[in-house]
Design goal:
The complex is a heterodimer of chains A (279) and B (378).
Chain A (H helix, E strand, L loop, with lengths): L1 H28 L16 H8 L1 H34 L6 H13 L2 H18 L8 H25 L3 H9 L4 H29 L3 H6 L7 H9 L5 H43 L1
Chain B lengths: L1 H5 L12 E10 L2 E11 L4 E5 L6 H9 L6 E6 L2 E2 L10 E4 L11 H6 L9 H14 L15 H13 L5 E5 L7 H18 L2 E6 L2 H7 L2 E6 L2 E6 L1 H6 L4 H6 L4 E10 L3 E6 L4 E6 L9 E6 L5 E3 L9 E11 L3 E7 L5 E7 L16 E5 L5 E5 L1
Parallel strand pairs in B: 3-8, 3-9, 6-7, 7-8
Antiparallel strand pairs in B: 1-2, 1-4, 4-5, 9-10, 11-12, 11-14, 12-13, 14-20, 15-19, 16-17, 16-19, 17-18
Helix pairs in contact in B: 4-5
Classes of the chains: A mainly alpha (279), B alpha+beta (378).
Amino acid sequence: MRQRSTFLFSVLCFGFAFFYIPIISMIVYSFNKSRLATVWGGFSVEWYFKLFKNAQIINAATLSLEIAVISATFATILGTMAGMALARFSRFRGRTFFSGLVSAPLIMPEVITGVSLLLLFVFMERYFGWPAKRGFTTVTIAHTTFALSYVAVIIQSRLLSMDVSLEEAAMDLGSKPWQVLFDVTLPIIAPAMIAGWLLAFTISLDDVVITNFTTGPGATTLPILIWGKVKLGVTPDINALATIIVLVVSIGVGLAGYLMYRSEKKRERDIQMALAANK
Amino acid sequence: MGIENTGKAWETPKTEPFIRIENVTKKFSDFIAVNNVSLDIYKGELFALLGGSGCGKTTLLRMLSGFESPTEGRVWIDGQDMTSVPPYERPVNMMFQSYALFPHMTVEQNVGYGLKHEKLTKAQRQDRVKQMLDLVQLSQFAGRKPHQLSGGQRQRVALARALAKQPKVLLLDEPLGALDKKLREHTQFEIMNIQEKTGITFVVVTHDQEEAMTLSTRIAVMDRGIIRQTGTPTEIYEFPKTKFVADFIGSINQFAGTVKSVTKDKAVVACADWAGEITVDRDASVAVGQNVSVAVRPEKISISKKAPAKTLNAIEGKVIDLGYFGKDSLYRVKLPSSALVRVNRVNDQRGRETERVAQWEDKVWLAFEPSAAILLKD
């Protein structure tokens, strides 16, 4: 048994090493004094300073953040609506089809999503004249489109575990359906909505493929910029930039996970309490 | 308690029913949940809809609250047609089985939630909330969240919240279902007291016959979408009209047989299981030769080792099972025909095991009065 657990432990270590050594080495080398990305030349934070003085990078970062905030917000609104339709309207025509449509982007290869959105935008430009050219708007729409699937799935599962009689009780006490939504449903699913927003934000922030298809001149997001720079060779400032992105994304995902975990815990505790009270 | 106060409105011919359910049918695609039910409930009643799961009692309740609309038929409350009125406009409130307390609101906010739709000043609203919390003795918990309360306390918050709007009718879905036995009894009386104090008409849905018997003024026994019998708890228990009702409420011994002869107030029934004839008071019109069932409650049969003085409705059998419940004991007695009879005897004397009326394998005499038996037509 002892031997087997040692084996399992080393496999685990290997797995983690495989995942995290590249990231850790990148973080370490972002503090490298040397210009060469692969030779250690002593500790320095100069690349971070250079980064913050680089207007091109700052612009790209600002654009990425703007797109992430706007698309995450739209994705949360639309995704919540879709999640509600899936969880609450039990029998409407084409429900299964709609459910498939909403979750399709989760499994669709990004290249396909990217190409199809590009075709759509080209088509719309030609026949409606909007969006006039590819850039900020098209990237935001594209990100909203696929991030809303993630939000819809989170909201749907939250609503399915929520007692329908809570909404009925509010209605029974005199609230019209829209009042029930704002008084009861939304406050209860708020943590799931925040988690969904953070997830959508994170997905938008680090997307390369779909952005690549839907962006245009003058709208270079951070991942696209990095992609372009790396083609000319990895420089320590890219390491520094990537380190910051890793940090931001980890915080986003971590917070989303924490919120979901906490609401799960709370529900478990409520159930425990209810059982204990009935003993 | 409640029974005296209502003055038996259902027996006074001129009283207008407060809730009138008129030929209501509810279908869910192919399944008929409620089948052409008509029911009158009077003001101030504590009415119970009793039945097993899937009998349609909850669907009927949800049609009173407005969450379901009847496929056919009409629902009237206090003279108004409610059939197509949405739940938020009905003068009816409901206490949910799961209590459905809003987890993000305090006890006070939960109770006051329904009042924000009424034209009340802030002071009036606070006053009403306080009054309701006093009624259910939860004033000191006003600031707590539902998850900080015990099951019994949550139940009372749910009750206070449903009463806060002073509805014309209060619907209770399995109100005691989630409580333990000790708390149940206490809560039962509390619900009855509150009903008396407020004078609101209560309609309770329950699968628990004891709960229905102790709580209510009248009971409707439901089965597969149909009301089998409506009556006071005593009527339902002592004078069931069908085999189903007799069987569903409490336990009962049934002996199938054929009517041999009929006198003015008695009928003699030949029963194969009883290996002889049973004499029964008759309150239903039966004819000679008709197939009937004689039903006797286990507590109405006497059991003793000595042969009874009167031989009417007496038979000898053997004890094959004995269940001791403390306050009473259940004997299962095998008759010569090998039919089993359940006999219940209150342990009104303190004694050791050996001092019991009978032991396993003992020969015993069973007997009952003609008035104790119920004659049920097939």
